[in-house]
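Example 3.2
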Amino acid sequence: MRSPDAGAAGANNMSQTHNAVELRKVLRRFGDRKVLNQIDLTLRASEFVAVLGPSGTGKTTLLRILSGLDQADGGSVRLAASRSVVFQEPRLVPAKKVWENVVLGESSREAQAAALRALEEVGLTKLSHAWPKTLSGGEAQRVALARALVHEPKLLLLDEPFASLDALTRIRMHELVQQLWARHQPAVVLVTHDVDEAILLADRVLVLSNGQIALDVQVNLPKPRRKTHPEFDRLRTQLLLQLGVTVPREEALAGELAEAA
């Protein structure tokens, strides 16, 4: 899904900059509650950031502001002009064929050719004329990814897009996202509840707590990443502890030893 123009959400499109996102003192209230409280965030072009946090900490609100679907109550929001969103549900139009869902609102030969190129990238060329109801969950999300990337966005926003998929399909989708990101090089913000997913995919991982960024860590693991790497264990332990998850003592100790090494 392509986002509305940034101006419609009270944000400024960025030009002549190497950043895809610049947030300064961003505030968002719902009633008396500050869902986002003085958020500062810079995301460089082509950088991949994952956002973790318990439910209700502002992850989805942050993503909606970045997409242009919501507006901050205060602070400065500057975003890349071209943005696309992939949601947890594929949100395909049942009455339109797969290729038509990739280029919604367009039906020219050029649009169809662009749709077919995007579907080829996600491995769905043979299903271009299928109806959405015939697709599996993973196939439907591949269509959603093709739709998000067909216009070459500078900022790609992923709102828990793999949460409803089975474990094997999730692994395949992780590989696909990494391939597409390497090829197209958009900046990416991935909202997820899955700590392992965040470490496997992102350059940086943010943890939101009480509407603020409680932790911002770099992920310096080589790609493709392996969960067996000692640094993976250390980062996983650090993030789980920040999220308030009790980590078995032997696992925490292993993380401390890896950090000391």
